[in-house]
Amino acid sequence: MTTTAFTKKALGVESPEPAVTPPPATPSTTFVKKPKPPSRKSRKRDIPEGLWTKCPKCATMVFDKELDENLKVCSQCQHHFPIGARERIHSLVETCTFEEMDADMTSVDVLSFTGVASYTSKLEDYQKSTGLKDAVITGVGNIGEHRVGLGVMDFAFLGGSMGSVVGEKLTRLIEKATEKTLPLIIISTSGGARMYEGMFSLMQMAKTCAALAYHAKARLAYISVLTNPDYAGVMASYASVGDLIIAEPGAMIGFAGPRVIKDTTQAELPPGFQTAEFLLDHGLIDAIVNRKEMKARLIEYLNFLSNGQK
Ligand SMILES: [Zn+2]
Q1: Distance between CA atoms of residues 29 and 124, nearest Å
Q2: Is 43 helix (H, G, I), strand (E, B) or coil?
């Protein structure tokens, strides 16, 4: 069997260039340290999971460890990969200063939602896979010298959708910040309101905004940070009413998605539509900040805003 296969190959090589010695075909020694990036066929099977990630923007294979060290930003093209809420809090808050609020609050299946899977089982699945109870973590912590109310959403939990828990946790955070006269930072990423909770999800838009109005009345600063993607009910409520609205590079931000708008208006959309860069040019957001500079810039803004108050 093997001999026949070998002769066939040898014949094929021989005809164009007869005198060539066949290459030794030894695996290159340079790959010993790092695992080999995946080749064409069945990538998922070939490489152990969680070693390499292909950057969707520049197509470079990025070593996962380097990606983690770089706060999930591609070192080649600065593409911002999604980052978990806990990891993000860790990158912003001073060590051991974060006090989480309402950590065990979970959603209830008020509508007895039935679909392919029940809402309750969906929630359980996501709680298992993300280690979170719902799509937002809230609490009070120190960023630089500033004590701040901080809410961070996680897209990995049901698309960062806003149900009653997200709304309630954020509202309690905002009210706590008002009560303790603290500035507020909400880092959002969301596909919008959570359809499994119907009207209860939509009510969160008014609730969070009302709490923010009291926070603003107390002349306290609110910085909204928009990360990829940020859409619908969240963008139409607390995410877009910050005193300062900043975004990460390349974040997609809007109310309805571009395809829906294109189909509705039947008009060609301008290039870069709904990207953070486009919205900066059109005045919806105030700045675009790279994730690695986020902490320093937030401290700068907090210094500025708190000085203004005095
Ligand atoms: Zn890249």
Answers
A1: 46
A2: helix
Query: Which residue's entry shows tokens 């010993």?
Result: 32
Distance from residue 93's CA to the centre of ligand 1 (Å)? 27
pTM: 0.82
Cα-to-centroid distance, 103 and ligand 1 (Å): 35
- Whether the CA torsion 174, 176, 180, 182 is positive or negative: it is negative
Task: Read off the pLDDT of residues 252-263 as tens digits, 9 standing for 90 and up.
Answer: 999 998 889 999
For helices 164-179 and 198-217, the axis angle rounded to 10 degrees is 10
Query: Which one of 12-21, 23-32, 188-197 scores highest in mean pLDDT?
Result: 188-197
Amino acid at 231: Y
Residue 158 to residue 24: CA distance in whole angstroms: 52
Strand partners, 54: 61
The single-letter DSSP state of residue 272 is T
How close is the Cα of 200 to the center of ligand 1, in Å? 39
Name the average pLDDT for the chain: 87
d(CA 161, CA 155): 8
CA of residue 78 to ligand 1 center, whole Å: 6
Contact of 72 with 53, CB cutoff 8 Å? no
Q: Which of 12-21, 38-47, 184-193, 282-291 has the lowest mean pLDDT?
A: 12-21
Centre of ligand 1 from the C-alpha of residue 300, in Å: 28
pLDDT of residue 85 exceeding 90:
yes
d(CA 68, ligand 1 centre) in Å: 14
Query: How remote is the CA of residue 187 from the centroid of ligand 1, in Å?
Result: 23
106: nearest Cα among 116, 118, 119, 88: 119
Give per-residue pLDDT as tens, 146-203.
Answer: 999 999 999 999 999 999 999 999 999 999 999 999 999 999 999 999 999 999 999 9
What residues flank ion ligand 1 with Cβ within 5 A? 55, 57-58, 74, 76-77, 79
Over range 12-24, report the average pLDDT. 46
